[in-house]
């Protein structure tokens, strides 16, 4: 499960962060294998921009579930610092920490400036450096040294898939790569060819078990972001909400990529997705305005997949 600490209209940002920790506790009780958090900076719709800090809170509040990032964005951090933070987490919670890394920059130009984002793409070099710090082969040693390897995943689309494949690293894919198109199939096939026996594919998408209207708040937020350049807090669903043609196209596209409905509908669509992608693992990244409905969806999905 991936929880992005989504904010909600009428609530403070702090409520979103506390809800992430509460949801992690429930996910553990329901038998989920991993619980991941995300990194987004200065986004009204996201309550947390510090994934390793939130990972520490989640790991401290749980006992067994694996805790990770989906992901830490390497362009925003020095690889040594990431390795040190992960080392501390792994020392405190041995055998429970995952590290997912991505290449996304800030959502807007002012955020990218605030992050001191570089204009050059050094993701492959940063990833190589991070791996060296994690496995102890770098010229300097990240402390504390890891007692055991921390699983490293690459959040990837396009070029990132090729990088992950060349390095033989597990990959997390979502969005257009999962569409039933020749381009999506070709991208996954190319990754597997490059990675060989080390290929491991995690597919990430919104999955909600319940009323299809549960998917509307997230779809509307995407449409609003495309119109205003600012990803907003979730709002309650309102099927008669007026939309421009562009917004309606975005909403329809988001709903197509969301698996939502009763157990039979969700099971059939998941079976088709997993057959098409030959995925090794499913990362559920769902959210909706109604927290109780989201908790119910998490429970129904866990029962469906058990």
Oligomer: single chain
Strand content: 5-15%
Radius of gyration: 19 Å
CATH homology superfamily: Luciferase-like domain
Topology (SSEs and partners):
Elements: E1 2-3, H1 13-30, E2 34-37, H2 51-61, E3 66-69, E4 72-73, H3 79-92, E5 99-102, H4 109-114, H5 123-135, E6 152-155, H6 159-167, E7 171-173, H7 182-195, E8 201-205, E9 207-209, H8 216-228, H9 245-257, E10 259-261, H10 263-277, E11 281-284, H11 291-305
Parallel strand pairs: 1-2, 2-3, 4-5, 5-6, 6-7, 7-8, 8-11, 9-10
Detailed description of the structure:
- The chain is 46% helix and 12% strand.
- It is of the alpha/beta class and 306 residues long.
- It has one domain (2-205, 262-305): TIM Barrel, CATH 3.20.20.
- The strands form 3 sheets. A 6-stranded parallel sheet has the order 4-5-6-7-8-11, with helices on one face. A 3-stranded parallel sheet has the order 1-2-3.
- Helix 8 crosses helix 9 (245-257).
- 42% of the residues are buried.
- The model has no long low-confidence stretch (mean pLDDT 93).
């Amino acid at each position: 499960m991936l929880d992005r600490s989504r904010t909600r209209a009428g609530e403070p940002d702090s409520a979103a962060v506390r809800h992430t920790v509460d949801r992690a506790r429930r996910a553990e009780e329901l038998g989920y294998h991993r619980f991941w958090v995300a990194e987004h900076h200065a986004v009204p719709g996201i309550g947390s921009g510090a994934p390793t800090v939130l990972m520490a809170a989640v790991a401290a509040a749980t006992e067994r579930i694996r805790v990770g990032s989906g992901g830490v964005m390497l362009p925003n951090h020095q690889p040594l610092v990431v390795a040190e933070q992960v080392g501390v987490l792994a020392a405190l919670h041995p055998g429970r920490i995952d590290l997912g890394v991505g290449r996304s920059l800030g959502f807007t130009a002012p955020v990218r400036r605030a992050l001191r984002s570089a204009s050059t793409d050094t993701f492959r070099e940063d990833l190589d450096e991070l791996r060296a710090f994690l496995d102890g082969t770098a010229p300097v040693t990240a402390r504390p040294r890891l007692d055991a390897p921390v699983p490293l995943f690459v959040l990837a689309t396009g070029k990132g898939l090729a990088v992950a494949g060349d390095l033989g690293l597990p990959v997390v894919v979502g969005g257009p790569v999962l569409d039933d198109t020749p381009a999506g199939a070709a991208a996954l096939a190319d990754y597997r060819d490059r990675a060989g026996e080390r290929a491991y594919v995690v597919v990430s998408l919104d999955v909600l078990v319940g009323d299809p209207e549960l998917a509307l708040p997230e779809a509307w937020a995407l449409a609003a972001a495309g119109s205003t350049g600012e990803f907003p807090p979730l709002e309650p669903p309102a099927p008669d909400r007026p939309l421009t043609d562009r917004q309606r196209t975005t909403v329809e596209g988001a709903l197509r990529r969301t698996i939502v409905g009763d157990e039979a509908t969700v099971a059939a669509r998941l079976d088709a997705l997993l057959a098409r992608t030959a995925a090794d693992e499913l990362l559920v990244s769902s959210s909706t305005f109604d927290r109780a409905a989201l908790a119910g969806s998490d429970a129904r999905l866990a029962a469906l997949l058990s």
